[in-house]
Design brief:
The complex is a heterodimer of chains A (254) and B (747). Chain A is built from seven helices and eight strands. With 254 residues, chain A is α/β, with parallel strands linked by helices. Chain A is globular, with a radius of gyration of 18 Å. The two termini of chain A are 23 Å apart. The model of chain B has no long low-confidence stretch (mean pLDDT 87). Classes of the chains: A alpha/beta (254), B alpha/beta (747).
């Protein structure tokens, strides 16, 4: 990671319209209940749990953005109504997912339709896998009239906080992200470069899994994409508002 | 004693004999005669000869039958009457304007009467309708020449008149003038005689400044300028400079000087940028100069309906959160909302990670532009967990003051809770604290993080913001089962004049009042709301988890928006005038509609209202019918813009809402909008029917048809059945028959 120069810090401060006189914020006055967290969906079959990855992501968000987070990563089943208390959810897997019951499908569909966000993360690092096949079947049942499509490079996910040029994770097999959109909103993102693998860190702070082929720079890009996904889940297409697009184009950043 | 006496009167040769007795009656008479004759013959045949006697009797019976048939001698006759002449006098108010100190109509009429034949002259007056006879008063409010000519044609159908003479200034408003002006070959009127048009009024002889037209296009959009195009006419004041004023509800908006051309005409336009929706009366006026013939046409009101293009909402959020996410989704998905969002994605203390600025997609927060320049373009400003201090800095007083002024001038403001809001955002003592519905300065602690179930207050049970369901009991039950909120910004209590709609179930202010959770307030002409929690998003997700959908959340925020921006379409009580402008003396029909939460009509709602203009106030009351509507008629007794306010209560006394509208009463007379006589129209009209058009100073004799007139037919009837001849003949024949019978020795 490159150190932040004083000039860059000042510019960044101006960009964020932050005040130099702002002191450190007290602990969140409303407690942790409404803070942003991440829920892992526990699916029968090939889903796996990487709470350390999401904790790391939430920490990174807390450090980098104005979002208030809590390092809370519950793991719950898709049919559990508690899912609706956590509008950001992740499903990580490396094996075939067992088919869900109709009730679970209905619940998950309702969750996504009414404002929840689901990141499906393929941890296999393979171009073809049983997990991928089962995910596509799952999405086909969730949205029979919608299909996965590659997100265009100007989608708000790639500019919700960082400007992302290439969506990489632990691996860089795919140069695109697939998603399902409902109108102008994208509530489901399917990422196949193992994002959680890049986010995972051990107790020593080092990455649990090596990122290939780009090493730590690739991991850095993966973290930026993960931050963007959470930011998008909260602000949706905010960054596609005219004011933002025009300003970024004026500054030559788009 | 002549022959005519025996027949009952003189009869001529050109006639026809008709029988008036019904056939069946005549048949009975004939049958009776035959029976009489047969009976007589049966008795007399035993003593012949009987021939002469029976012959006499038969003659008597034949004469009787003839008389019984009701013969009438009908002679056809007739004679030609001399022709009549019709004079139509334009009795409208434009004929009454003074020219050389005398009404133009009166002056012209005196000259016309010297030229038209007085014999068999029939005079009519016309305005909107045709009236026979009477002295012209030049007081009628309109001119419909086509209707007048049609009325003459129908009245004299079948008769050829010597002439149809029209005295008018040609300022027709019934459509004929428009047709002659706009069409190449207008259909000429069908007239029962030759037309002569005497034009009243001399162009240029009248000194009058008037507002001829104000074109506003009928409606405008909020926050978007629209143009009022004003046309002036000022014959007699050519070359002068006229100060033109634009007022709204009596308040001067603008004034501009207009240089009048050599033809006395002038044009000017005003750009108006309305910041509220509804119906507004704008009035354009020019001063009354000395010699101005018609002061009443110096003012023209025009009502403009201002509609929202879309509701402009500014959402400023200090930290992306689930609460911000769901509110943005709601606002963004509403096609009636034009949303501008600014979220603070990164603050100074969020720079602990080492990312270069070029890696970020952040833009500067344009707070100065938003809160110093663009603020008036919004309908609603939302501070959602927003801390102004890092950004506004030394401009804080000015920019927050702008927000307060924005509200006082009619804008709407919402502050939503969080760890950057209310006391946590250090708003105490700022201009914002003056407009909030809660008093800041809660002391310590400033927040409470315990989950709680908000409680509906008394005002909250009836307030449109918290009325999520029509039925009060169901509404309260819904609030009772909505998801609990996560935490609360504490306050010192409700601000004066505010209404607390939701309160905390257990927490109390320092004064011992329930701690406000949701409060609203009217500030100046605007409205504000304080929502002291940051987790209404749970109302969506918790309901969705139960399969209930998100209607409670959507309805709450829709209610909020409608109430905050005073959306008239969302008002449950609406009052509307039948039209925008009324003349003095007219009735003003006002309709009041009262709807329940489900927008169904409320029957039996008690309406109390008032109409006010300056110091004049008219009060009224009524009750709605089964459709929830009521009609009121108010007299337009005083000139000016009138504002109507109504208040509706249920039959039980519960408040249902209030409504408001405006209309204008003017003494401006449409008949006096234009005063210069239209010689071209009158000439075209006369030419189209081969008639004659005379202008003032060149009056000649009317065009008359000497062959005109009408044939009067008569039928003379002589009732022959009543003639003395028939009883005489019957008597002679009967006597003769009787004498012959006695001579033969019979009785």
């Amino acid at each position: 990671m490159s150190p932040l120069s004083r000039r860059a810090a000042l510019r960044l401060g101006a960009a964020a319209a932050a005040s130099a006189c702002l002191g450190a914020r007290d602990t969140f006055a409303f407690g942790d209940a409404s803070k942003v967290d991440c829920v892992e969906i526990n699916m029968p079959g090939g889903s796996i749990s990487r709470p350390e990855a999401w904790s790391r992501l939430l920490f990174e968000i807390e450090q980098t953005t104005s979002i208030e987070t809590v390092s809370r990563v519950p793991r719950i089943a898709p049919e559990d109504p508690a899912l609706f208390e956590h509008p950001f959810a992740a499903l990580v897997g490396d094996g075939e997912l067992k088919p869900l019951s109709d009730a679970a499908i209905e619940q998950l569909r309702r969750y996504l339709t009414y404002g929840g966000f689901l990141l499906i993360d393929d941890a296999t690092g393979l171009k073809r896998s049983a997990f991928d096949d089962s995910v596509r079947k799952l999405i086909g049942r969730l949205f029979p009239t919608r299909s996965l499509f590659p997100l265009p490079s100007d989608h708000a996910i790639f500019r919700s906080f960082f400007l992302i040029n290439r969506p990489v994770g632990r691996v860089a097999l795919f140069d695109h992200v697939e998603a399902v959109s409902l109108g102008e909103i994208t509530p489901l993102v399917y990422f196949r470069n193992d994002l959680s693998g890049a986010l995972s860190r051990g107790a020593d702070g080092r990455g649990t899994y090596p990122c290939t082929p780009g090493g730590e720079n690739q991991r850095r890009e993966a973290v930026k994409l993960a931050v963007n996904l959470v930011m998008y889940a909260l602000t949706s297409n905010y960054k596609q508002d005219q004011a933002h697009v025009a300003e970024l184009m004026k500054e030559g950043r788009l | 004693m002549s022959l005519w006496w025996w027949l009952g009167g003189e009869v001529g040769p050109d006639a026809a004999l008709t029988f008036t007795t019904p056939g069946w009656l005549f048949g009975l008479a004939v049958a009776a005669a035959i029976v009489t004759l047969l009976v007589t013959w049966r008795d007399a045949r035993r003593f012949p000869p009987v021939g002469v006697e029976l012959l006499c009797l038969a003659l008597a019976l034949a004469v009787g039958c003839f008389a019984a048939s009701g013969p009438v001698w009908v002679e056809q006759a007739g004679h030609r009457e001399p022709p009549r002449t019709v004079l139509l006098i334009d009795d409208s108010r434009s004929m009454g304007v003074l020219e050389a100190g005398e009404p133009r109509g009166a002056r012209a009429l005196a000259e016309v009467m010297d030229r038209v034949p007085s014999d068999r002259l029939e005079v009519f007056r016309f305005g909107r309708e045709l009236t026979a006879g009477g002295e012209p008063s030049f007081e009628q409010g309109s001119t419909d020449l086509a209707q007048a000519l049609r009325g003459v044609s129908e009245r004299y159908a079948g008769e050829r008149l010597a002439g149809v003479i029209v005295l008018t200034d040609g300022l027709d408003r019934g459509g004929m003038r428009a047709r002659y002006t706009n069409e190449d070959s207008p259909e000429p009127p069908r007239l029962p005689g030759p037309l002569t048009v005497y034009q009243a009024g001399v162009p240029g002889e009248l000194d009058d400044v008037s507002v001829v037209s104000v074109n506003a296009g009928g409606f405008g959009f909020m926050h978007s300028p629209f143009t009022l195009d004003v046309t002036l006419a000022a014959p007699g004041f050519e070359g002068r400079k006229a100060p033109v004023s634009l007022t709204q509800d009596g308040r001067l908006l603008a004034q501009r000087d207009v240089a009048l051309g050599q033809d006395g005409a002038g044009k000017v336009n005003f750009s108006v940028k309305p910041n509220k929706s509804g119906r507004f009366v704008y009035e354009v006026s020019v001063p009354v100069w000395e010699g101005d013939a018609v002061p009443g046409n110096n003012t023209m009101p025009v009502a403009v309906r201002v509609v929202r293009d879309r509701l402009r909402v500014l959402q400023v959020c200090g930290s992306p959160s689930f609460d911000q996410k769901f509110l943005r989704l709601f606002l963004k998905q509403d096609p009636a909302v034009d949303l501008v969002s600014f979220f603070i994605l990164r603050t100074h203390e969020d720079t602990r990670s080492s990312y270069d600025e070029k890696e970020l997609s952040l833009i500067k927060f344009p707070y100065e532009q938003l809160f110093a320049e663009d603020l008036a373009s919004f309908d609603l400003v939302i501070f959602q967990n927003f801390d102004y201090r890092p950004y506004f800095q030394e401009l804080a007083g000015e920019l927050l003051g702008n927000v307060a002024s924005f509200v006082k001038e009619g804008g709407a403001f919402v502050m939503i809770g969080g760890d950057r809001s209310f006391d946590e955002g250090d708003y105490q003592g700022t201009p914002i604290s003056e407009i909030l519905p809660v008093t800041l300065g809660a002391g310590t602690p400033r927040t409470d993080s315990a989950s709680f179930q908000p409680r509906l207050t008394g005002p909250g049970r009836v307030h449109p913001v918290t009325r999520l369901l029509g039925d009060a009991t169901e509404n309260e039950a819904l609030w009772g089962r909505l998801s609990a909120l996560d935490g609360l910004n504490l306050s010192a209590g409700p601000a004066p004049g505010s209404a607390v709609l939701l309160s905390h179930p257990t927490l109390r202010t320092q004064k011992g009042e329930p701690m406000p959770v949701l409060a609203v307030r009217e500030v100046g002409r605007g409205r504000t709301m304080a929502l002291l929690g940051d987790s209404t998003w749970r109302w969506i997700m918790a309901e969705a988890a139960l399969g209930q959908g998100n209607q409670a959340y959507l309805r709450f925020w829709k209610n909020t928006m409608r109430w905050l921006v005073k959306d008239p379409e969302g008002d449950r009580v609406q009052v509307a005038a039948a039209r925008e402008n009324f003349l003095l003396g007219e009735d003003v029909p006002l309709s009041v509609r009262v709807r329940d939460v489900g927008f169904g009509g409320v029957e039996g709602a008690v309406i109390e209202g008032s109409a006010q203009s300056g110091g004049e106030v008219v009060t009224f009351d009524t009750v709605t019918d089964k459709t929830g509507e009521a009609l009121i008629r108010l007299p337009a007794e005083h000139r000016g813009p009138w504002r109507v306010k109504v208040k509706a209560t249920s039959a039980g006394g519960g408040p249902l809402g209030e409504g408001e509208t405006v209309y204008a009463v003017t003494d401006r007379d449409p008949e006096l909008d234009e005063l210069s006589p239209d010689a071209a129209f009158l000439a075209s009209l006369a030419q189209s029917v081969s008639g004659t058009h005379y202008t003032p100073g060149a009056y000649g004799p009317p065009q008359l048809d000497a062959e005109a007139g009408r044939l009067v037919r008569e039928a003379r009837e002589t009732p022959l059945w009543a003639a003395p001849l028939w009883p005489t003949l019957i008597g002679v024949f009967t006597s003769l028959s009787w004498w012959l019978r006695r001579r033969r020795g019979l009785r």
